[in-house]
Design brief:
Radius of gyration: 19 Å
Order of helices and strands: HHHHHEHEHEHEHEEEHEEH
Helix content: 40-55%
Strand order of the largest sheet: 1-9-8-2-5-3-4
Number of helices: 11
Shape: globular
Number of strands: 9
Distance between the termini: 46 Å
Largest sheet: 7 strands, mixed
Length: about 290
Amino acid sequence: MKQKALNALIYIISLLPYWFLYLISDGLYYILYYIVGYRKSIVFQNLKNAFPEKTDKERLIIAKKFYRFFPDLLVESIKLKTITAATVKKKMTLENEEELTRHLAAGKNVIGVTSHYANWELGIHRLSLITSFPTLIVYKPLNNKDIDTVYNTMRSRFGAEMVPMKQILRHIVKLKGQPNVSMLVADQTPLYSDSDYFINWLNQETLVYTGAERLSRISKAPIVYCYIGRKPQRGQYFCKFVTLVEDPTEFAEHEITDLHNQFAEKLICETPEYWLWSHNRWKRKRRK
């Protein structure tokens, strides 16, 4: 019943025009930042740790820009419930889709990597509309099964297949001989049982997933970074594909993991307000 109610609520809100959704977003900004103070301690601590060279005023500016963008992301994500394919293409332009499709045309699998940056949710829809080859979106299941089901149903509207992290290898093996794309959001926080590899990322010792590297080596697949950025016009985004690894056998252990994390770090440092600073990313510390 909860799932049906949530689904109905999201559906109704998603029917609202963008201009009205952005009015809601404007109100949410003041509520989240000035009244509720949503995860302010986490946001400001993350920014302080990531950018110790910046002044308090500079970090405050980034924080306010993040809180201004975050409600837009929320309402835009709800809109994905009923958005049309034509509107998806209008909202997110592709700069070089051939950098992705050339690998598929050559009969290769592609391991895609992205991060919680700009509108990655809209990116799922846009990726689904590029090719007819299977598109696997690797995700970390939520504890709340109702929310998990509702959002995964939304995400798969244009053909993407939502695959839990622990099942992705099985799916790739099942698709052996058929080119496909497996997209991972690589900046999530692993459990200790999932990874023991730490890197210096955003000026902090950070436990990272090595799944993209392992999948690339197993399937001999290139790694393509999906860089989603925001345009100056509200609600408009672009997607640019960058092949970071053509042949995984040419890299030593962990070099691929280092490479795609460094690429993400560079993008975040250039325009930090579009990364998910409210995420408690550094809660896992190295064990003594």
